[in-house]
Amino acid sequence: MKTEELFEDVYARFMLHFYREVFKNFSNREATLTTVETFCMEVIYTMEEPTVNEFASFIQISSPNAAYKVNSLIKKGYLTKERSETDHREYHLKVTQKYLDYYNVSKRYIEQVLAKTKEKMTQEQWDSFHDALAIVRKVQEGDIPAYGRYKNGAAASGEEGD
Question: Which residues of the chain have pLDDT under 50?
């Protein structure tokens, strides 16, 4: 299998696991996220408390359209708006525990796969794997601005632990 195919396969398996877990619990959710809402929540979570305008700008939609999506997510209990401490005219979007519970389905699986992977590698292999991921992230920087937990390479540099 070529490297591109292998990478695509690994990415697809993470997605499939996430969606299987979401659908498994589908009937237990009274206010399920639509596909577009799921994508919006993932962007907002990754940006770490953006304003509505920052969110709209990032996904390249109008502010009124973003506000509509945000209000729907607030009604479903996945988001809150909190007044900025520095500029009281602005509100930052914060994900709720309800969303974190939803998101953690994916995060837990990533942690499990990485723990099992690390067990099968030597420390040198693990360090090389980490370095390879950091290179991929660096290549992506030109396409995706750094927001939230990914500012200044914190996640890629291992500052959040590994």
Answer: 154-162
